[in-house]
Amino acid sequence: MAHTLPALPYAFSALEPHIDAATMEIHSQKHHKAYVDNLNKALTGHADLEGKDITALLRDIKSVPEAIRPAVTNNGGGHHNHTLFFSIMSADAGGEPTGAIGDAITAAFGDFAAFKAKIKENAIGQFGSGWSWLVWDGSKIAAVKKPNQDSPLMDGHVPLLGIDVWEHAYYLKYQNKRPDYVDAWWNTVNWNKVNELFAAAKAGK
After folding, report:
1. With helix as H, strand as E and coil as C, how does 143-170 read?
2. Where does the chain hold its CATH 1.10.287.990 domain(s)?
3. Rounded Cα gap, residues 118 and 60, in angstroms
4. What per-residue confidence (pLDDT) applies to 43?
5. 8 Å CB contact between 107 and 131
6. Measured between alpha carbons, how far is 193 from 205 in angstroms, rounded to an integer?
7. Fold of the domain spanning 21-87
8. Where are the CATH 3.55.40.20 domain residues in the chain?
9. Got the DSSP string for 26-37?
10. Residue 51's pLDDT band (boundaries 50, 70, 90)?
11. For the whole model, what pTM was predicted?
């Protein structure tokens, strides 16, 4: 079964002024679509892999034949990373996290400000393209950064929140000002969705 591009759950302009409509349209309809198309192309002829959902495929990346593993890593990771990224943002969002994820962040980082600082440090410190992540490592939450489209799933972690720091995610509006983009991005985070992901991760789903 071929992988498909998910519908964006809001209008391209929904995240303005923090993320502009042009960036959202290009990001979701061109960049994300390219990852999906190239993943399907890489998996063609590998019947045992074509039927796997994207999470299972990335968790078991070492079982993917070496000849196509880089393509699956890059494009499968890009597909899953972007699907999560777009799902954890929404209009009229932002603010401080509540519920279980809020409690976990306070326990792990001390307070929300320290958590934001760590995520930003990883986002700015990621040389070149990549992501700054909050993950569930099987026993606790942790802040990590990953290059390119590498997925935390390949390390056995469950991504809960991620900020895309590839230039295509912010350059139209913020140019080379990655820190400004990171600061603005917090206004888009849908903490209800992050709480859902956190609950599923702890339940082993």
Report:
1. EEEEECCCCHHHHCCEEEEEEECCHHHC
2. 21-87
3. 29
4. 97
5. no
6. 15
7. Helix Hairpins (1.10.287)
8. 99-202
9. HIIIIIHHHHHH
10. confident
11. 0.96
The span from the CA of 23 to the CA of 25, in Å, is 5
- In angstroms and rounded to an integer, the radius of gyration of the C-alpha atoms of the chain is 16
As a whole number, mean pLDDT of residues 140-158 equals 98
Enter the DSSP assignment of 13.
T
Spatial neighbors of 189 by CB under 8 A, at least 6 apart, are 88, 89, 93, 94, 97, 161
Read off the DSSP letter of residue 7: P
Q: Is 135 helix (H, G, I), strand (E, B) or coil?
A: strand
Mean pLDDT, the chain, whole residue set? 97
Average pLDDT for 168-172: 98
At 169, which amino acid appears? A
Q: Is the pLDDT score of 205 beyond 80?
A: no
Edge-first strand listing for the sheet containing 158-164 = 141-147, 130-136, 158-164
Tell me which of 205 and 95 has the higher pLDDT: 95
Rounded to 5 degrees, what are φ and ψ at 136?
-100, 120
Q: Is the pLDDT of residue 1 over 80?
A: no
CATH class for the domain made up of 99-202: alpha beta
